[in-house]
Design goal:
Rossmann fold, alpha/beta, single chain, aldehyde dehydrogenase (NAD+) activity, NAD(P)-bd_dom_sf
């Protein structure tokens, strides 16, 4: 079948990075399909893409939804990290099956979880991947399977980034740790150690970067990988200060994250267990090196920190919209 070079399938369009990718692709002229198990709940939104009934766990659903597509955005994750270890790899296999059937390129929003301390503090795309967590090991296996799929006719673009935040972010440290969605900001909870840098990625900038890369797809390797720098909070205090400026409270209290309580509750709450596993990323500076990206694009798309934080707080219902 002839492949339509401007049709994309997005898995995870109801989530943070998947939704931003879908909207940015529409703006760039792509016809976008979004797979969802209950599309009727999503069709009230007017984002310009078509919702299709299907389950990312079923390869047949993904293959059918990807018919004629040249791009598959794999941005789907189990909500609240429930059954993460059991669901993530079968879902990526569905995308692989669809991509190999179509000769399509898979876009994977990647993370720093793949890496262990031997790759820190400045991490290049080709740094050794020796993860120290279960999620990290699963991420490494995801990428291994995706690279093997390239040998069977698929293509790949991995864009790794730091901790996500944005106006439509869901399971993120910003939305679940620093502030409380739907409530005015009365304090900021900082998970990091004082003086330790941390890397943040504003979702609209990540999506913009991915689309700019795709616009030069003819120059990309079949298995292309780039690192996105985003916002480097050099001392771990800049993000909290930006939140204080956004809410207009220079005396906004900054509290330490309750790691000991999180560890005690982890056996009973899956989300807490998954968050506790990532503590090591808050205890030492870890920075993705974006020099390859800048050399390829000429620049990295970048929204100012204060504007990005303000938009995020408005989107989360923590600030009134303009």
């Amino acid at each position: 079948m002839t492949t339509d070079q401007k049709t994309a399938l997005v898995l995870g369009a109801s989530g943070g990075i998947g939704g931003e990718m879908a909207r940015r692709l529409v703006a760039a002229g792509w016809r976008v399909r979004a797979l969802h198990r209950d599309p009727a709940r999503q069709r009230a939104s007017d984002d310009g893409f078509t919702w299709i009934n299907g389950d990312a766990m079923r390869a047949a659903d993904v293959i059918a939804a990807a018919d004629g597509a040249s791009l598959i955005v794999h941005a789907v994750n189990p909500p609240g990290y429930r059954n993460w270890g059991q669901l993530v790899l079968p879902m990526v296999e569905s995308s692989i099956a669809a991509a190999t059937a179509q000769g399509a390129r898979i876009v994977l929003p990647g993370t720093v979880y793949n890496y262990g301390p031997d790759a820190f503090p400045l991490v290049g795309e080709d740094a050794p991947q020796n993860p120290v967590t279960r999620k990290g090991a699963i991420r490494v296996e995801m990428e291994r399977r995706l690279r093997k799929a390239v040998e069977r006719g698929a293509k790949l673009l991995i864009l790794r980034a730091g901790d996500f935040f944005g106006p439509r972010s869901g399971n993120t440290w910003f939305a679940q740790g620093l502030v409380t969605p739907g409530r005015p900001v009365r304090r900021v909870v900082n998970p990091g150690r004082p003086g330790i840098g941390h890397q943040w990625a504003y979702l609209p900038d990540v999506a913009e970067t991915a689309v700019r890369l795709l616009e030069r797809a003819d120059q990309l390797d079949d298995a292309a990988t780039f690192h996105f720098q985003g916002f480097w909070d050099a001392d771990g205090a800049a993000m909290a200060a930006a939140i204080a400026r956004a809410v207009g409270d220079s005396a906004l209290p900054i509290r330490r994250f309750p790691w000991p309580l999180l560890r005690l509750a982890a056996p009973f709450v899956p989300l807490f267990r998954e968050l506790a596993e990532m503590r090591y990323l808050w205890e030492q500076p870890v920075r993705l090196d974006n020099r390859r990206l800048v050399a390829f694009l000429g620049e990295e798309p970048h929204t100012g920190l204060d504007e990005a934080v303000r938009r995020t707080l408005v989107g989360l219902g923590c600030l009134p919209g303009a």
